[in-house]
Amino acid sequence: MSRVYNFSAGPAVLPEEVLKEAATEMLDYQGTGMSVMEMSHRSKVFEGILNEAEQDLRDLMGIPDNYRVLFLQGGAHLQFAMIPMNLMKNRVADYIVTGQWAKKAFNEAAIYGKANKIASSEDETFSYIPDCSDLPISPDADYVYICENNTIYGTKFHTLPNTKGKLLVSDVSSCFLSEPVDVTKYGLLYGGVQKNIGPAGMVIAIIREDLITEDTLPGTPTYMKYKIHADANSLYNTPNAYCIYMCGKVFKWLKKMGGLEVMKARNEEKAAVLYDFLDESRLFKGTVRKEDRSLMNVPFVTGSTELDAEFVKAATEAGLVNLKGHRSVGGMRASIYNAMPLEGVKALVEFMKKFEEEHHV
Ligand SMILES: *Cc1c(COP(=O)(O)O)cnc(C)c1O
Questions:
Q1: 72, 101, 176, 328: which to mutate for ligand 1, most atoms within 8 A of CB?
Q2: Cα–Cα distance between 99 and 143 in angstroms, integer?
Q3: How far apart are CA 217 and CA 185, in angstroms?
Q4: Residue with the nearest Cα to atom 7 of ligand 1?
Q5: Which residues have a catalytic role annotated?
Q6: Rounded to an integer, what distance in angstroms lies between the CA atom of residue 309 and that of residue 311?
Q7: What percent of the chain clears pLDDT 70, i.e. is strictly above it?
Q8: CB-neighbour burial class of residue 344 (10 A; exposed 0-12, middle 13-18, buried 19+)
């Protein structure tokens, strides 16, 4: 068996320790004689897995009691619709468009009401985060929406926007659990777990209790109501049970590592290795405004599409895989989530140095 360094943006690298533990429990989960995959989601054993996962996440993030944690299916994409259906009471919402994911959420919201694009960084290929200290927030806006870490472009909101008292809704898919957050600053934050937590197929939504109501837009399907899932403790229908189990294991791993302050320090150290090299390289360049750089997704280019392709190919052969940039931007992108060890980032930088020398620049 040989493991590669996997820089995929998602589904992405998971902690090796967690994978090994899951492997030992594959045929017989703790004396039940069956895999978690084969288990009733209504069983006591699974109920324990679910409740423990929620509690561990609450401990890690310091989630206050007046917030609910929902384990939902349909990916981040379903939230693009579920959010307006549940929260757009006045049918008005303000969107800050900092990349493709925010844009998709904005377009989806426009189906249900008046979605206002109050800021955007599309003029410079989403390579920065706009100044959000004094935006024209709509007086009747039901919420202000952001995508906090832009997976494709490698930017991150290091300061949350001034919403002028409006609810903040945030897609945290690619920065989930990468650093501590103050949950009370949000009405709702949610993320697909396949970026920084677990396997694909699930979203975790953390939502303030008073926002979970029967009062949804007319025609909202039952399944799309937060209340249905909250009342059923995420067991309204069969959940993605194995994914919940895997996420639970990752939460325990994060706790063991020391929690989110420690993860933040580790992530800063890892990102600095790569960004410091990019800042002095004669061949490779980062594509993002420095103060808006993400700790999780690091896009870079050589300036030549041929050389980019050659680099990606050579890196793959060296066991550094999934470095090709998103199809919409090209170049390269290294996603260095929680589970990417420092050695992986160092190996990448060493390889980039060697490539640079071989190309006599
Ligand atoms: C990957 C990603 C999405 C899309 O997630 P799906 O689970 O495929 O729907 C949305 N937002 C962000 C920030 C992402 O990184």
A1: 101
A2: 19
A3: 25
A4: 75
A5: 101, 171, 195
A6: 5
A7: 99
A8: buried
Residues 229, 73: contact at Cβ < 8 Å?
no
Number of other residues whose CB lies within 10 A of the CB of residue 40: 12
CB 178 within 8 A of CB 295: yes
* Residue pLDDT, tens place only, 155-194: 999 999 999 999 999 999 999 999 999 999 999 999 999 9
Q: Say how many Å lie between the first and final Cα of the chain, rounded.
A: 36
Q: Whose CA is nearest to atom 12 of ligand 1?
A: 173
Dihedral (Cα; 341, 56, 229, 44), 10-degree rounding: 110
pTM of the full predicted structure?
0.98
The two structure tokens encoding residue 63: 């989630």
Average pLDDT, rounded, for the chain: 97
Residue type, 252: K
Amino acid code (one letter) for 18: V
**Domains (ranges, CATH) in the chain?**
17-257 (3.40.640.10), 259-358 (3.90.1150.10)
Question: Is there an atom of ligand 1 within 6 Å of 147 CB?
Answer: yes
Task: Return the residue matching tokens 């160092």.
Answer: 346
Contact between residue 294 and residue 149 where contact means Cβ atoms under 8 Å apart: yes
Q: To 10 degrees, the CA torsion angle through 358, 289, 160, 82?
A: -70
Residue 361: band (very low, low, confident or very high) from pLDDT cuts 50, 70, 90: low
Contacts of 317 (CB under 8 A, 6+ apart): none
